[in-house]
Amino acid sequence: MKNVVIIGCGKGIGLESAKILSKDFNVTGISRSKTAEIENLEIDFHELDILNGNLNEIAFPDVVDGLIYAPGSINLKPFNRLSEEDFKNDFNINVLGAIKTIQKLLPNLKKSESASIVLFSTVAAKIGMPFHSSVAASKSAVEGLVKSLAAEFAMQKIRVNALAPSLTDTSLASQLLSTPEKRESSDKRHPLQRIGKPEEIAELISFLISEKSAWMTGQIIGIDGGMGAVKI
């Protein structure tokens, strides 16, 4: 059975990915907190803050066939209310955390016959959206990282792709969905008239990790209810 590492598996999209992938892969999961849902999964779980923790303390599989970096941030403010620290925090969690993980596991990924890395961007990196300057800046950096690493790792048969979702019903987005009125307004902003579900994103991650996507690399894939491509 192949080995997959999921960073940020404690909730939301990372948790749903762990649920799906643990059926067919050996999953090593890392999250800042251990939830009851994680305890019910047959995975090798480690409680660790990816930015401040020591990855050398974890005994990763010698061969890693898939890596999913799922932590993210939603820090929406007018530009003049965003501090330099806000921009640094978003860049740290979205970009530097991914870099730290990939550098740690690159030797393991190189040992796979066909490895796949999945990172996360956002629809706001493609279309201009007010109050998104910090997260859009860091996620745009993720897109550049994906394309550069896809080119660099191609000869080692390591694929690198990213998903660019719109608003998804996770705890990270809870403040944006805290009332029925906010939820209805968010639904209506999307051409398909609803926000995303974490399990929908997880199914696409499963595809990108599997051999079914073996001829895909360097792609930024929108999964956003049509927001990034359709205007109605």
Shape: globular
Mean pLDDT: 95
The major sheet is characterized as: 7 strands, parallel
Low-confidence stretches: none
Q: What is the end-to-end distance?
A: 45 Å
Helix content: 25-40%
Helix count equals 6
- Give the strand content: 15-25%
The total of beta strands comes to 7
Rg over CA atoms, rounded to whole Å, is 17 Å
- Return the string of H and E elements: EHEHEEHEHEHHE
Quaternary state reads: single chain
Q: Helices and strands: which structural class?
A: alpha/beta
Arrangement of strands in the largest sheet: 3-2-1-4-5-6-7
Layout: helices, strands, pairs:
Layout lengths: L2 E5 L4 H10 L4 E6 L4 H4 L4 E4 L18 E4 L14 H27 L4 E6 L12 H21 L4 E8 L14 H9 L9 H12 L10 E4 L9
Parallel strand pairs: 1-2, 1-4, 2-3, 4-5, 5-6, 6-7
Quick recap of the structure?
The protein is an alpha/beta fold and 232 residues long. It has helices at 12-21, 36-39, 84-110, 133-153, 180-188, 198-209, and strands at 3-7, 26-31, 44-47, 66-69, 115-120, 158-165, 220-223. The protein is built from 6 helices and 7 strands.
Structure description:
With 232 residues, the chain is an alpha/beta fold. It is 36% helix and 16% strand. The protein has 6 helices and 7 strands; from the N terminus they run βαβαββαβαβααβ. A 7-stranded parallel β-sheet has the order 3-2-1-4-5-6-7, with helices on both faces. α1 crosses α6 (198-209) and α3 runs parallel beside α4. The model has no long low-confidence stretch (mean pLDDT 95).
